[in-house]
Structure formats: structure tokens, C-alpha cells
Input
Amino acid sequence: MTTARLAGAGYETLDRPTAPESRLRTLVPIVAGGIALIAYVRTMLPGLAFGDWGEMQTVPHILGVAHPTGYPTFVLLAWAAQLVPVGTVAARENLLSAVLVAGSVAVASLILVRLGVRPGLAVIGSVAIGAAGTVWAAATVAEVNPLHLLLVALLVHRALIWEARRTRADLLIGGLLLGLAVGNHLLILFVAPFIVAFVVWSGRAVILSKPGHALAGAGAVVLGLSVYLTVPGGAPRGPAPAGHPPHPPHPGGGRGGGGPVRAP
Output
């Protein structure tokens, strides 16, 4: 991958790829994500789970509030996923996790390509990440971690695009992703400072000359955080009861019960 510097402006951007290179780069995330999705769907939990997994299957169905912090970003997305008429309600939530982690694998391949890794190696590397035990396990059950993985991958990818282009749109998209990520899992607070520091340092000249860009990005963060406004409305429907039973093993390789939950 080659780069060209814009004289006197401090910008660095990727050279326009040729038509064959562009087609090849387009195939990278499709192949990587497709391989991961097939593996995850084949091994995901087929039905209802217990504990946190069961909670994340049932709470979105009533647009309720999960245990603290409520995970409103996930609840809203999972509620929308349950509208897809495929299988049981519980299976739809498990399938959502498979799709989200497969999407993370696809974005990881794009990150590797942007860092200069050859397309074939980018596919292999990203699929290897998706085959890690903790990542694969997250793809087989309904949980907030798959969405966390995808949002982190999208934030890193957007930060790299910002480094190359430094446009207002990059900060808007990145800010919105960050706000939604905070609305999904507070673990993002351990990752976000490093991404924000990279964005500020790599684009310091643009941010100083165009402070409106930074303000727009901050506004997008607030917009993403607005998902927490749904928590008071869902509170009457409440979180799942405390003291969940343990997760028995299931044939698909994860943990959970086998009984299906069907939409009314």
C-alpha cells in the first residue's frame, strides 16, 4: 500500500487503487466475515439460555431494562433484530450475536488492509482473531459483548480513516459510534481514551484550525448517548430477576437451555 503526502498541510492519504485492487479489497471483508458467520451459525446456541444470556434474549422482546447499566444500545438493536421472522425469538438473539461478531471480523480485515497487510493475509489474520476462544464463544449466545467488539472495531477503523482524510464526517461518525458504544457497555471507557488521543494527535492541525469539527464530533457523542433516554421508559418493565440458575452445557458448544421461545 502506497501513500502520498499533501505538501505543507500535514495530510496523508491512500493512493487511489486500481480497479482490480479495489475489487480485491471489497472481497476481503466479505470473505472474512462470511467464513466467520458460517462457523458461528453452525455452533450457536439453538434456543433459550439462562442467566445473563437468557436476560438478553427476553429483555429486548419487551423493550425493558437489563441489569445495570441497562445496555440501551444493545436492547434497541436486539429488539429490532427480533422483528426478523427467522426461527424463535431466542434464536434470533443468538443469531444477532453471530452476525455482530462476524461483522467485527470483517471490519478487522479492513483495518489490516488499511495498515498495509496484503488482502489474503488480512483474511487469514482476521479469521484467526475470530477463531479465538473468547471471541467465538461470544458469537454463539445472546450478549452485549458482540456489539462491543463490533463498535470497537468500527471506531478503530474510523480513526484510521480520519488519519488519512481528516474530514468533518469522520468525526461525526466516530463520535456517534463512541456514544453508542458507551450506551452498550462501559468497558469502552478503557479503550476510548487511546482512540481519542490518536484522533486528536493525528489531526491536531485540523482540529486547531477548524474547532467546529471537534464540536461536531462532541455533539455526535451526545447524540449517541441519548439512547440512555430510553431507560426510564423501560424501567417499569424491569430487569430480569436476580439469582439466575447456572448455565448447563448444550450440544452446540456453548451453555444454555434447549427450550425454544416463540414469538406471540
Notes: Residues 1-14, 240-264 have pLDDT under 50 and may be disordered. Residues 89 and 264 are 9 Å apart (CA to CA). The beta strands are 3-6, 11-14. The chain is about 60% helix and 5% strand.
